[in-house]
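INTERNAL AUDIT FORM
Audit reference: QA-55
Scope: verify that the stored structure record matches its stored sequence.
Auditor: D.O.
Record contents follow.
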Amino acid sequence: MKNLVLMFSIGLILIACKVTEKPEFIGVNSIKIRNISNREFTILANLKFENKNDLGGTLQAKDIHVFIDSIDVAKVETEIFNVPKRKEFELPLIVKIPFDKIYKNSKQSLLESVLNVVTNKKIIISYKGFVDYKLLGFHYSYPLDYKQELTLKES
């Protein structure tokens, strides 16, 4: 009888808690250019999500391809991130983009690529890949496809 009451109580708690929704992708927040060198530049971005569940779980962005003006320039993954319950959160993303990759793919001169970054040129940056969310045996993998215009200037 005690086991039946215990199982009923656990079942009632699980039914009362919202645990089956994946975190909602809201957008990319605070994209900044850091560490411009003669070989590469680094983009820091925060992928913004909202978790509506009563429990946390983990989140990881996998195989995120970064495109600049439709040129695939980098592939990144994030560390496993502990998701807070019932709140908005940001998943940090650090992308190192070598200038020679832009040069090889766009057929521009390397000097022109460097000058575009230094002279605050506007570019279109896109993130495409998958986000994996895990919680209590549930596993969701959903696509990430986000595009934004960005003015390159070092911060």
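Auditor finding: record pair retrieved intact. The chain has a mean pLDDT of 77.
Action required: none
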